[in-house]
Amino acid sequence: MDKTQLGHVTLDVEGGIGTVEFYHPAHNSLPGKLLARLAQTIREAGDRPEVRVIVLKSAGDRTFCAGASFDELLAIDGFERGKEFFMGFARVINAMRTCPRLIIGRVQGKAVGGGVGVAAATDYCFATKYASVKLSELAVGIGPFVVGPAVARKVGQAAFGQMAIDATRWHDAGWAREKGLFAQVFDTMEEMDEAVMALARTLAASSPEAMAELKRVLWEGTDHWDELLEQRAEISGRLVLTPPARAAIEAFKKK
What CATH topology corresponds to 3-206+223-254? Predict the structure, then answer.
């Protein structure tokens, strides 16, 4: 079975809250088709007038998002295909950036690579104490180029550099909260979900126009990201074809 075809993205709307959920059996990794669906669903939610606020979550109770699909990374056989794969993450981040609705993140467990980028692109992010984060890209011969702007925007360039350089190290949820990636961290999923829904209901009753203006203010200085993230996808698309990257990805996949 082609594992890159598995998984789902759903949108449920209730009481002005649009809940976008993604799932993949390989620890909620994101192959290209799932990335495309996720970007499209976020755009769709932002275009629906009955949606006042968006909650972005993944299914399951262990891993929020394992990032890129290693099966798909190994299948990349040329620059254009590599660039297109990494453009999937660029489109998700840009869909979140340009969405007129505030996006609340719900991170129940570990986030790796692109998963950290998705969490960073939310406007307000809740997590549990199990939500450790890691930017593992350099360890597989690539680098966190596409997600870098989103992560650095939240945690600062210095903390982003720590994560990017020490690519095998997990940073716990407390560290991520101190750096600004997470707004609040809870001991249990139940406590986190109560807080997520409390804020979502409050925002659903707030002024859509005021929230849209606030969103624009929060993302000031990012109007060039369409071009920037495409340039970053080109860097990753080139590096993923190099022998060190191919060997490292194959080794990681076997673990």
Answer: 2-enoyl-CoA Hydratase; Chain A, domain 1 (3.90.226)
